[in-house]
Amino acid sequence: MRNAFKESEKAVIYRTIHERRDVRSQFLPDPIPNEVLTRLLAAAHAAPSVGFMQPWDFIIIDDLTIRQRIKANFDSENSKAACNYSDNQKNLYQQLKLEGILESPINICITCDRARGGKHVLGRNSVIDMDLFSTCLAVQNFWLAARAEGVGVGWVSILDHDLLSQQLNLPENVYPLAYLCVGYVSEFLTEPELATKGWRQRLPLEQLIHYNQW
Amino acid sequence: MRNAFKESEKAVIYRTIHERRDVRSQFLPDPIPNEVLTRLLAAAHAAPSVGFMQPWDFIIIDDLTIRQRIKANFDSENSKAACNYSDNQKNLYQQLKLEGILESPINICITCDRARGGKHVLGRNSVIDMDLFSTCLAVQNFWLAARAEGVGVGWVSILDHDLLSQQLNLPENVYPLAYLCVGYVSEFLTEPELATKGWRQRLPLEQLIHYNQW
Hints:
The first copy, chain A, is α+β, with helices and mostly antiparallel strands and about 210 residues long. Helix content of chain A is about 40%, strand content about 15%. Chains A and B meet through helix 1, helix 2, strand 1, helix 3 and helix 5 of A and helix 1, helix 2, strand 1, helix 3 and helix 5 of B.
């Protein structure tokens, strides 16, 4: 079919998509060269966005003091989360490593400026959260490009975002959508860790497909 | 660096990311073979999700009557949106083609089941919308894999989502996150249409990068 990539090129895309992992434990301290980081950010910036709003900004955090504060934010939220579980599930939860804030050489917060582009952003009239959704697409571009570069990425979602906004000095209209731990890794695991550790298994794709209606 | 792809393979990833477009106008009627569609859906299903929740489902819509109803939903919302603009901007807005619901051979709604995985999904305690954000990552996997297959994708965000939920018979806990027009295309435009038509230009990446704090 015209416009399609060659079979060998398609295979690279699928390999990237299927070998991408959420990394928490395998970070190496090696610095990421500037030209690599710039390629990753340019990949994120090439994401589609509602009304070409491009609502994202990228905060690159290597300062250890700031990261320690954000780690404390995580610890506090994670303790609260652990209380949702009991018995064996609580034990398993507490054994899972869920972030690499201090072990990764840099953290990157991808934010969403909810006021960018003015009051009436094209395509955002019916669903106001399209700006947040657009920013997620940038996150996934970053994540996939990073896999190809051998760079691991882990999204830390167990954070009080109001506190995180203060910790990063964000303006009122800017939301800290994705807090990412970023660095080269010793290996990419072959399967998602939550599956191999018995927390939850992959759903069969065929159960998730519907035709014309639910 | 270990785990990195070869330079030629990295180039394929970046090419996919930079040549992906939001398609509204270039759809061809050619059907998408089942094996291609299955690869695209498997790519979406390989996205990361909070707590391995995998909250997505895929509704593949080819029924013309259903698509006509959804086109009417778009027309109604789009008329309302046009009222946000005046003079030259309104003229330009009304000339933009913003969906390909009927011209594309299939539409796919990627939904988010907000109740999947039970009450306490790992990693979703602090930010309840992490399930929606995860579903967006699946959308971008789909979109990029489609580009490599020569398949165009356009996200229609100008829809009343309550009405869309009715039109697709969604259960109460399922949100119609992304309504996509999907099909082979005559060409992928070299630049985003909103830029070439003068609606809005790409922001310089360097303006979007911050160090350690905003």
